[in-house]
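Module 6 notes. Inverse folding takes a fixed backbone as the condition and produces residue identities as the prediction. Think of it as a translation problem where the source language is geometry and the target language is the twenty amino acids. Below is one complete input and output pair. Work through it position by position during the lab.
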């Protein structure tokens, strides 16, 4: 009817979307890729085209014909024929547009691959060719065995040489005065290193032998060529990367060389201070070594920071992840590490303790053997070696028995408590006599006795003397002998070493008459 529009037929669901392109399929003959089909032909998908082409090629090769491969133009593509029969078609839709490839180039490439398949098929049927391949494989196997035998022999020699070299230089690698790595660890590390390199070379040799063996036989030649191509690609990538990074490596090398020269200059400048030949008010023998180490450490830290952008792969995600990991580790451990190092520097530069001095730190007493960046080691007279953290040393009360003495000796002292009924002059004389009898105690300066307290029931006496620097003995031995002589002297003069407590009021006052003030061995003062 006029004015009435006929309704259009409904479109099937999904017709608004273009059909999906066919799934590409690769044509292979005896493991060798020939062509890649990307377009469908008369409703046949690429996979179906591949199946038909493989059947035609298989029949043609089975017939053992002349194996002539040619290309014929057809509408919409090219036909690749084998012995006059169309083996497959290369269509315009099969061309790789991203590679700017033409249909003629794609057809010629496929024809060349097919000719290679024909040649390998003939070779596989030739006993002469297979025999030559087997002989070549046997020779390659013998060469592989010789290489492995040579690697085994060289491995032991290199391991011994590396261990000897590393052991010689490992003695110089010390942290806090302690060797970082021992001789046995050096040998184990050298063995592990040579073993790793040995197996790496063996794997590379076996890999090349395997690829050569596969490439020698027709049916496995594509696999062998793939292995060899992979090796060449990896080597080319590494070589290209190395050549591209060479200018940056030169810059980094120059930075490290300058840092090494500057470190050597700092070391040369500080050597007279380290040996004690030169000293100033702010730098002496005790502080020269840590000052030198700090300066050299700052030089190398600055060198690493300056050369980091020039190192290969520094801008890669792997390096960025490593930087994050190192930063996290430093942030987690920096509190204790930096604190210990800071306390060590404080102890060094304030000269609180020095190596060789006899000190008492908290409840620990002994000779300072080493003042390191993180710990302090002291050796007691009992044959013990105690390691204290520098934070503990800095936070504890330190008594130095060597700082005020003449030479390199130390102070010894002993305390006794005697009742008020014993003349103090007699007690002092007996304590000095005990110190005189003790081997290793100097008589100049003369031992001194102090009355340190007047307690409720007894005065406290402390004898202080200096040990002989020329006769070094552990302080514990000197103290033990001094205590023994104190007991002997007091026993000789009939004075009891005791601290009487108050039990009651005696009939007579517990005083010392004046006529008893200078009992032997005390000497009365001379009259003027």
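Target side of the pair, the amino acids:
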């Amino acid at each position: 009817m006029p004015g009435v529009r006929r309704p259009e037929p409904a479109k099937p669901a999904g017709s608004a979307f273009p059909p999906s392109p066919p799934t590409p399929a690769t044509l292979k003959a005896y493991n060798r890729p020939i062509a890649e089909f990307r377009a469908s032909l008369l409703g046949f998908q690429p996979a179906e085209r591949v199946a038909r082409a493989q059947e035609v090629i298989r029949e043609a090769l089975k017939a053992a014909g002349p194996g002539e491969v040619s290309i014929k133009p057809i509408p919409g593509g090219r036909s690749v024929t084998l012995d006059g029969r169309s083996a497959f078609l290369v269509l315009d839709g099969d061309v790789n547009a991203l590679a700017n490839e033409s249909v003629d180039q794609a057809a010629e490439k496929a024809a060349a691959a097919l000719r290679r398949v024909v040649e390998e098929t003939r070779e596989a049927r030739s006993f002469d060719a297979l025999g030559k391949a087997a002989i070549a494989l046997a020779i390659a196997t013998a060469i592989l065995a010789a290489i492995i035998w040579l690697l085994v022999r060289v491995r032991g020699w290199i391991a011994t040489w590396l261990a000897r070299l590393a052991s010689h230089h490992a003695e110089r690698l010390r942290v806090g005065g302690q060797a970082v790595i021992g001789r046995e660890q050096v040998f184990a590390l050298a063995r592990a290193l040579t073993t790793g390199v040995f197996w790496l070379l063996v794997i590379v040799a076996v890999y090349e032998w395997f690829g050569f063996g596969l490439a020698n036989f027709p049916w496995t030649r594509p696999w062998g060529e793939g292995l060899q191509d992979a090796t060449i690609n990896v080597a080319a990538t590494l070589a290209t990367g190395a050549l591209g990074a060479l200018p940056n490596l030169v810059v980094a090398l120059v930075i490290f060389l300058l840092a090494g020269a500057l470190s050597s200059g700092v070391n040369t400048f500080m050597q007279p201070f380290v040996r004690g030949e030169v000293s100033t008010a702010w730098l002496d023998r005790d502080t020269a070594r840590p000052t030198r180490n700090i300066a050299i450490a700052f030089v190398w830290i600055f060198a690493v920071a300056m050369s980091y952008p020039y190192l290969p792969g520094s801008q890669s995600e792997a390096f960025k992840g490593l930087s994050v990991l190192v930063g996290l580790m430093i942030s987690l451990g920096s509190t204790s590490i930096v604190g210990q190092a800071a306390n060590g520097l404080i102890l060094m530069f304030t000269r609180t303790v020095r190596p060789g001095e006899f000190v008492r730190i908290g409840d620990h007493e002994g000779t300072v053997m080493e003042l390191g960046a993180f710990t302090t080691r002291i050796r007691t007279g009992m044959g013990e070696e105690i390691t204290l953290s520098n934070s503990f040393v800095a936070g504890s009360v330190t008594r130095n028995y060597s700082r005020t003495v003449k030479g390199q000796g130390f102070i010894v002292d002993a305390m006794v408590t005697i009742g008020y009924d014993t003349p103090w002059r007699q007690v002092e004389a007996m304590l000095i006599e005990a110190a005189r009898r003790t081997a290793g105690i100097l008589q100049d300066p003369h031992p001194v006795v102090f009355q340190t307290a007047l307690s409720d029931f007894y005065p406290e006496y402390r004898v202080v003397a200096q040990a002989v620097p020329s006769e070094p003995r552990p302080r514990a031995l000197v103290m033990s002998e001094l205590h023994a002589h104190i007991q002997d002297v007091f026993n000789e003069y009939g004075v009891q070493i005791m601290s009487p407590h108050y039990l009651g009021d005696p009939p007579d006052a517990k005083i010392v008459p004046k006529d008893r003030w200078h009992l032997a061995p005390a000497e009365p003062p001379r009259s003027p």
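Reference fact for the lab report: The first strand starts at residue 25 and ends at 29.
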